[in-house]
């Protein structure tokens, strides 16, 4: 099976699938090395890596090319976070085949207005589009895919927007009816109660997707036991880990007046060269340079 088919099968499987965020091929390779089933091509992380807000500021092409580079660097499926779809349903119908051609196995699209505001920002501007409008986007995305294994995941921000569980369930059901292969339900509450209530009330057949950024106490074993969730995404941990490590190392170098103390605790240059795929290049040199 190709990556798309493997992803679709795992999404429907009884065993919970897990995806780690990435903002470049190196972080994706490290996530795959750690054993994650898939890579979350995070719009938040890519925006952060470019030092701009997660508010549709980066152009579509920049995100697409990063997803292409990530997909080329790993063997596991890549899930592209395409925010609101870069426009209306017509735009979506042009965008989705490009992500598919770039090597992604799924896209996640959310039902907020363009330009979006990041979901976890305190007092953020969280405005939802009409249900019918987003159904059209889901239908356009499903109709545009060329490989039946490629998945379209609809993300409702109803809980993020404070619209309540009833609205979230109505939107999730409408998006499933429009053809969505899974429903991502998001919350920024610091405890999982809101999400657990939604999951218990969900009567659809489409598997659910959770992103427990705000409620980290919900473990994979807890999510697995719910029986309705096919995928858990760790949405921003790569960039947070990178920022934390760099901030610490940079501060220590300035404090120590050099790298004499910090250097021994860092990955070696040899390790970085290995992550770059040096062994593969050397083998190609051996075989092809005559």
UniProtKB/TrEMBL annotation:
Keywords: Hydrolase, Pyruvate. The keyword Hydrolase applies. It holds the Pfam family PEP_mutase. One of its GO terms (molecular function) is phosphonopyruvate hydrolase activity. Belongs to the isocitrate lyase/PEP mutase superfamily. PEP mutase family. PANTHER family: PHOSPHOENOLPYRUVATE CARBOXYLASE, PHOSPHOENOLPYRUVATE PHOSPHOMUTASE. This is Phosphonopyruvate hydrolase. It comes from Achromobacter agilis. The gene is pphA.
